[in-house]
UniProtKB/TrEMBL annotation:
Stretches assigned to coiled coil: none
Protein name: Short chain dehydrogenase
Classification via InterPro entries: NAD(P)-bd_dom_sf, SDR_DHRS6-like, SDR_fam
Record-linked CDD domains: Lin1944_like_SDR_c
Record's keyword terms, sorted: Oxidoreductase
Domain of life per record: Bacteria
Entry's family note: Belongs to the short-chain dehydrogenases/reductases (SDR) family.
Lineage: Bacteria, Bacillati, Actinomycetota, Actinomycetes, Pseudonocardiales
PANTHER family: DIHYDROANTICAPSIN 7-DEHYDROGENASE
Length: 212
């Protein structure tokens, strides 16, 4: 089923799947570490960052080719991020850099994964959600909307290929706490990680999942 979904019970939506080799980009970040912890009990997770033994950078698409030498079953990307930037202060260079890093970089990753993953594999990307417009969020909103549209349409083009979905968390509770804000306004990182795990192990396709 294609479309946007709100994730209330990730565990109940999962299939019983074990023993997959999963490439995890952004494995050293807050979300990446939590996703690794959620997947590692049942799968072989290959952590990837700019400094890991298996190295890749979304801003350098050519570096992504090396990831698939490990013959993975699934790819999860938690590496993408677009900082808040006031619209009036944006430069053309900043716009292009942020598009390359989060939108175009993940599209490049997905394109390579489609060619190399098995038909039963999966691709899970990272978007984001703003419950309401906030200063500096215009470019991030553009990227997130682009990812949602890309995933929805790409899934329709790959009826027999790997599944593709995107997780779109809002503020992470632990991030808010680190900023001195009320962490209760965000989603606990463990809940966000369960959304990734459920998409990897389940059968959803073309979905935008907002962890709650």
């Amino acid at each position: 089923m294609y479309g946007k979904g709100f994730y209330a019970n990730p565990v109940a939506a999962s299939a019983t799947v074990e023993g997959m080799r999963i490439i995890l980009l952004g494995a050293t970040g807050l979300v990446g570490r939590a996703v690794a912890a959620a997947l590692e009990p049942r799968h072989d997770v290959v952590p990837v960052s700019r400094t890991s033994p298996v190295e890749a950078d979304l801003a350098n698409p050519a570096s992504l080719d090396a990831l698939f030498g490990t013959s993975p079953d699934a790819v999860v990307c938690c590496a993408a991020n677009v900082p808040l930037r006031p619209l009036a202060d944006l430069t053309d260079t900043q716009v292009l850099d942020d598009l390359r890093a989060k939108l175009l970089g993940q599209v490049a990753l997905a394109r390579r994964a489609v060619e190399r993953l098995p038909a039963g594999g999966s691709i899970t990307l990272t978007g984001g959600t703003f419950t309401e417009p906030i200063p500096g969020s215009a470019l991030g909103a553009l990227v997130n909307a682009g990812l949602e549209g890309f995933v929805r349409s790409a899934a329709a083009e790959l009826p027999h290929g790997p599944r593709i979905n995107v997780v779109s968390p809002g503020w992470i509770g632990e991030t808010l706490e680190a900023m001195g804000e009320d962490g209760g306004r965000g989603t606990p990182v463990a809940v966000v990680a369960e959304a990734y795990r459920a998409l990897v192990e389940g059968d959803a396709n073309g979905r935008t999942v907002v962890p709650r």
